[in-house]
Amino acid sequence: MRFEIRREVALPVPPEDVWRAIATREGQAGWFMTFEGDDAAAEIVEDAPHRLEQRFGTQAIEYVLEAAEGGTTVLRFVHSGIAEEDWGDEFETMTGLGWDHYLRTLREYLVHFPGRPAVYVEAEAPPGPEAWTGALEAFGDPAEGDTVDTPVGPGTVDLRSEHYLGIRTDNALIRFHERSLIGMCLAVGHHEYTPGADRAAITDTWTAWLAEKAG
Q: Per-residue pLDDT for 122 more than 90?
């Protein structure tokens, strides 16, 4: 199935700052994820700090950066190609929503944690439809702007939608992703900006929390 997802976002920092966030492994860990081994980009085309294209098998991701007034940037984003699995309409819907979430996280990173190196951690809840509801209830079914307690300290809800919950603490961005439409369990991504952060300890913390609250 061929697909094409396009987005355009305004970012309140110059292109050079956006470029570091999207084009370096250290920067990507701050808002997206890290790629290693077979998941690493097979082909990269760069024209710093204006255009970046990453090709993964049958798919491509393109970022085009344009300087705007007041030291800001307009980012034009395209994810296109052929979906290798037959997920039907859910693939493009969920992938599009996913990019909305990631681009929102990119903005949060650039505004609140600019240039800070990150440790990225993922953890998954036990399978089951009650996981998402359990996680939301653990935080009091919060709205954007609410203050919540997390196992890594207090934070502010900076993103709340049907399939995503984002929390910003003093040293981290935490992202919950409800993935039932594509047959996957609830996952949490944690971007930690504390120097020397222990990836294994953070993983254990979230694995235990998800087992208790979303199991």
A: yes
What are the sequence ranges of the domains in the chain?
2-112, 119-213
In terms of Cβ atoms closer than 10 Å to its own Cβ (0-12, 13-18, 19+), residue 98 is middle
Strand partners, 10: 74
Q: Can you tell me whether residue 168 is helix, strand or coil?
A: strand
Find the mean pLDDT for residues 63-78: 98
In this model, does residue 155 exceed pLDDT 60? Answer: yes
Query: Could you give the CA distance from residue 7 to residue 78 in angstroms, rounded to a whole number?
Result: 7
166-174: long-range contacts (C-beta < 8 A, 24 or more apart)?
166/101, 166/104, 166/105, 166/108, 167/139, 168/108, 168/112, 173/31, 173/105, 173/108, 173/109, 173/112, 173/113, 174/150
SS3 141: coil
Q: Tell me: pLDDT of 36 over 80.
A: no
Tokens for 144, please give them: 């954007």
Please choose, from the candidates 173, 160, 70, 43, the residue with its C-alpha nearest in 3D space to the C-alpha of residue 121. Answer: 173
Its sign, for the CA torsion 94, 32, 139, 214, is positive
Separation CA 107–CA 110 (nearest Å): 5
By CB atoms closer than 10 A (0-12, 13-18, 19+), residue 162 is exposed
CATH class of 2-112: alpha beta
pLDDT higher than 60, residue 38: no
Q: Is 189 helix (H, G, I), strand (E, B) or coil?
A: strand
